[in-house]
Specification:
278 residues, alpha/beta, 5-stranded parallel beta sheet, two-stranded antiparallel ribbon
């Protein structure tokens, strides 16, 4: 088996680098026949699962098309080498303005028209930290900085041994629920976070989270979340109030009103009303 990666070869929102050791220990301890990575993301968890237990079948749900980015690493490296040379006299972290910015954008526009651009990786090298763009228009909407990495990206053997699929996670739960010795990995986008860098145009809402928990009921799983989501507290509350909870908004009317835009953000005011109890 090839090398073990402690982080994904290309930038990705929501990597689990801090959990590498603990997660690998869990896989070795459980020793499952099959591992199903429901929200495969960068594939790091699938990669680690296969390296920790090579005999396991590992199903990597590449719902975000990360493998396409891996396939185009040679083109991405060519671009990065070009920009590395172009910006060699720019201090690290310096803002890129004027003719230099124009030259960078022109090269990217040409590459986008005639080839392939990994906008997330280029964002990590030319925009402020974690401000990922998904296309040329998004990329040009922000300030550019000299953040070019000094080495090429390498992904040799990263997905070796993985069974790569691209399906809705519910389909995978259904397909492998009764297979036998199966461990499911669930690392959904964090609650109410922007998932534009995933294969989605919607925010990950509470309902989506609860749907995942419903699918995982009765299964062996490793689940990832954050303290911001408060999903654990919600589940504890539901457990404490079993049999007492119902949807009080069922049958209510809903009215929405757009708020004035403030800075970069806007939102909708929501009013629900249900008058049959009066």
């Amino acid at each position: 088996m090839s090398k073990i990666y402690s982080s994904a070869p290309l930038p990705f929102q929501g990597q689990k680098r801090r959990h590498v050791r603990t997660f690998s220990e869990i896989i070795r301890q459980v020793n499952p026949d099959v591992v199903v990575d429901l929200f495969g993301g960068s594939g790091l968890l699938s990669h680690l699962a296969k390296r920790a237990n090579p005999r396991s079948r590992v199903i990597y749900n590449d719902y975000d098309n990360y493998c396409e980015r891996l396939e185009h690493i040679p083109q991405t490296n060519v671009l990065l080498r070009y920009f590395r040379e172009l910006l060699k006299d720019y201090p690290k972290g310096a803002k890129i303005n004027g003719a230099m910015r124009d030259a960078i954008l022109q090269r990217l526009k040409t590459e986008d028209a005639n080839g392939y651009v990994d906008w997330i990786t280029l964002s990590a090298n030319l925009r402020f930290s974690m401000r990922y763009a998904n296309n040329y228009d998004e990329f040009t909407s922000d300030t550019l900085y000299q953040r070019i990495r000094m080495s090429d990206h390498v992904a040799d053997g990263y997905i070796d041994g993985l069974e790569v699929v691209n399906v809705d996670y519910r389909e995978l739960c259904k397909q492998y629920r009764n297979v036998g010795d199966v461990l499911f990995i669930a690392d959904p986008p964090y609650l109410s976070t922007d998932v534009s860098t995933y294969n989605s145009t919607e925010y990950w809402k509470l309902k989506d989270y609860l749907d995942v928990l419903t699918e995982l009921s009765g299964l062996n799983f490793v689940y990832f979340t954050s303290n911001k989501s408060q999903i654990i507290e919600l589940c504890e509350w539901l457990d404490d109030n079993e049999g007492k909870v119902r949807n009080i908004f069922k049958g209510a009317s809903v009215k929405t009103a757009k708020s004035p835009t403030t800075g970069m953000t806007s939102y909708e005011d929501i009013m629900l009303y249900k008058l049959n109890a009066i």
